[in-house]
Every structure is written in C-alpha cells, then in structure tokens.
C-alpha cells in the first residue's frame, strides 16, 4: 500500500482531490473481496489508462509473494474501482503474454521502480487490466 488506511480514507472523502496525485504519479482505489474473510479490502494503487481500461501492477515491492489484493482478485475477479470521483465495477484480469510488454513499459514510464522490483524476485510480476463492466 502507498500510505495505507489514511490514503484510502482521504481519497474516498474528497473524491480523490487528496490522494489521486501521489509522488509524481496517479493512484486509484481498488476494492477486492477477501478470499478468506469475504470482507471488502481497499488498496491505493498506481495506475495508467489503456483505452477505457485501467492498468495496475501486482508488484508487492518485489517480494516473492504477490500482494494480497492480487490473490483476492484471482479468487473473485469482480472488483470495485474509484478513480477520483468515478466509482465503478470492473472485471480484473492478468495481462496476456502478448499484451504485457507494452503495458509494462507504460507502467514503468510512470513508476520506474517496477523494473527494480522485478529484479528482486524470480516471480513474474503481473500487470492487471481492470475492465469496466
């Protein structure tokens, strides 16, 4: 997470006036359903637009395990997304091997540390496509 619960709270309360812009890039709020708890879990994540879709990266800072939100969306791909004041339902999917190189370049252009994260782990870090439903 970027700066945790306070980021989520301020983003939600201000429709992203606080929290959308973060350290020179932009963030959205992703709400997944906990795969064990069934509870909603909201995480601020760096994103980029790809047509009508939004791209996010399941980097977990280069850890060998994927982030919990990624495990949650693998179990339940229907998610809620907030971009500024726009709240919508989306279907999350991992980018295909054909899509990933271009999407990865798009994401590292706004957050170069993703390349460093990939070097820290043998796990292939996925790019996730959020398709509005």
UniProtKB/TrEMBL annotation:
List, alphabetically, the NCBIfam families matched: hi_GC_TIGR00026
Q: Which InterPro entries match?
A: F420H2_quin_Rdtase (IPR004378), Split_barrel_FMN-bd (IPR012349)
Task: Give the top-rank taxon of the lineage listed in the UniProt record for this protein.
Answer: Bacteria
Instruction: Give a GO cellular-component term.
Output: plasma membrane
Q: What one GO molecular function would you report for this record? A: coenzyme F420 binding
Return the protein name: Nitroreductase family deazaflavin-dependent oxidoreductase
Catalytic reaction annotation:
oxidized coenzyme F420-(gamma-L-Glu)(n) + a quinol + H(+) = reduced coenzyme F420-(gamma-L-Glu)(n) + a quinone
The protein's matches in Pfam families, at most eight in alphabetical order, are given as: F420H2_quin_red
- What ranges does the record give for the region Disordered, renumbered to this chain? 1-20
- What organism, scientifically named, is this protein from? Actinomadura rubrisoli
Family assignment from sequence similarity: Belongs to the F420H(2)-dependent quinone reductase family.
